[in-house]
Amino acid sequence: MTSLDERVKAIEEEIRKTPYHKATEHHIGRLRAKLARLKERLEAPSKSKGKREGFAVKKTGDATVVLVGPPSVGKSTLLNKLTRASSKVGEYDFTTLEVVPGILEYKGAKIQVLDIPGLVGGAAKGRGRGREILSVARIADLLLLMVDTSSIGMIDQIKKELHEAGVRLNQEPPEVKIKKLSKGGLKVVSQSVISAKAVKEIGREFGLVNAEIIVKKANSINQLIDAFASNRVYTPALVIVNKIDLLNAKDAKKIKKNDVILISAKEKAGLERLKEKIFKSLGLIRVYLRPKGQEVDFEKPLILKKEAMVADAVRKLSKELVKEIKFARVWGFSAKHPGQQVSLSHKLADRDTLSF
Ligand SMILES: Nc1nc2c(ncn2[C@@H]2O[C@H](COP(=O)(O)OP(=O)(O)O)[C@@H](O)[C@H]2O)c(=O)[nH]1
Ligand SMILES: [Mg+2]
After folding, report:
1. Residue 233, SS3?
2. Which ligand sits closest to the CA of 77?
3. Atom 13 in ligand 1: which residue has the minimum CA distance?
4. Which protein residue has the closest C-alpha to ligand 1 atom 9?
5. For residue 281, what are the CA distances in angstroms to 55, 63, 167, 235, 238?
6. Cα 43 to averaged position of ligand 2 atoms, centre (Å)
């Protein structure tokens, strides 16, 4: 065991021994921050190993979805059914050694789906090429955590590996503003449940000496540490249980009680519902265009992220155009009245029609 490992163990032990209340909050905060920093050092990839081939992935399309799960649950089979990709399907574990991309076309959106090698326990620490797998998971706009009927217990394990890799699932990010100063020590304003004293301790642990820290939103010490740490991403996730064709109705009903999506990739069961859920969870909106003096184009909507503005829509068409246009007309949910004249900062809604 390395000395770094030993220090981690010692701090974990001390945290376990310290009861949590207001008077110990700053102490626990400091310990947890210390722990987070040590783990960052432990998990930093060693430079000597060099870069491995096969995991360089480019994001394309309107959004990227990544399939994560243990080997043999049917990830490749699902990818092949959702897209026109051909990911190798095998009876044996670890058939998929590279990242296989496919494009799912749904409601006019082109959604990139990535099939990556099976995630095994200890992945965050580098087992089974875990680090590379997790680095692909980090670029996802939505994660599909996939197991099959015989590996439902693995869901928590997958969540844990992702957590250790800095991926926060279905969580609103904390809001912390840090402004470095040249002198004056640490000035803290906490509008959250965490005391200013604890914020100060944690900030110091992360190497801040002179700075103004404003904590607008943080639900817990861990969330505050997440705000200081460098590698956190906040990603929506869905849990999928595959191979329900192997279950009888009674057992299927039991599983359904959990918040999971049941499918059979092989028999193409539940896939329409899954696509709908993917589209919804990505928070994509469709905006129809109406060229001046012409009919609305309902065939090819612009696909934008939730809360997108008119400027985003125009920019998606042409980066030049966005400099020329000053206002547009909108029909639909976001418009006060049909054909409302709006500026570039107007927020669009799903199924709006836009003309400029
Ligand atoms: N019964 C059943 N078998 C499936 C289903 N989906 C995949 N499989 C089988 O499970 C095995 C592993 O599938 P694969 O897609 O390679 O899994 P991956 O390792 O997660 O990519 C293959 O033999 C598939 O035919 C399903 O919905 N039902
Ligand atoms: Mg596979």
Report:
1. strand
2. 1
3. 74
4. 74
5. 25, 11, 17, 10, 8
6. 26
Q: How confident is the model at residue 56 (pLDDT cuts 50, 70, 90)?
A: low
- Listed residue (208, 186, 181) closest to 196, CA to CA: 186
Q: How far is CA 86 from CA 83, 199, 210, 338, 341, in A?
A: 8, 50, 54, 45, 47
- The shares of helix, strand and coil residues in the chain, as percent rounded to the nearest 5, are 35, 25, 40
The residues lining ligand 1, judged by C-beta closer than 6 Å to any ligand atom, are: 71-77, 89-91, 95-96, 118, 242-243, 245-246, 264-266
Ligand 2 is a single-atom ion; what residues have CB below 5 A from it?
A: 75-76, 95-96
- Per-residue pLDDT tens digits for 212-265: 999 999 999 999 999 999 889 999 999 999 999 998 888 888 887 778 999 999
Residue 3 has pLDDT above 70, yes or no: yes
CA of 127 to the centre of ligand 1 (A): 23
Tell me, in angstroms, the distance from the centre of ligand 2 to residue 233's CA: 25
What is the predicted pLDDT for the residue at 54?
Answer: 46
Residue 37 near residue 206 (C-beta atoms within 8 A): yes
Locus of tokens 């000597």: 48
**Residue with CA at minimum distance from ligand 1 atom 8:** 74
- Name the DSSP class of 85: -
State pLDDT tens for residues 184-224. Answer: 999 999 999 999 999 999 999 999 999 999 999 999 999 99
Of 254, 261, 313, 325, the residue nearest 287 (C-alpha): 313
Give the pLDDT confidence of 203-214 residue by residue, as tens digits: 999 999 999 999
Q: Which among 66, 67, 72 is the best mutation to test ligand 1's pocket, defined by most ligand atoms within 8 Å of the CB?
A: 72
**Closest CA to ligand 1's atom 14:** 74
* pLDDT score, position 224: 93
Neighbours of 30 (CB within 10 A): 19
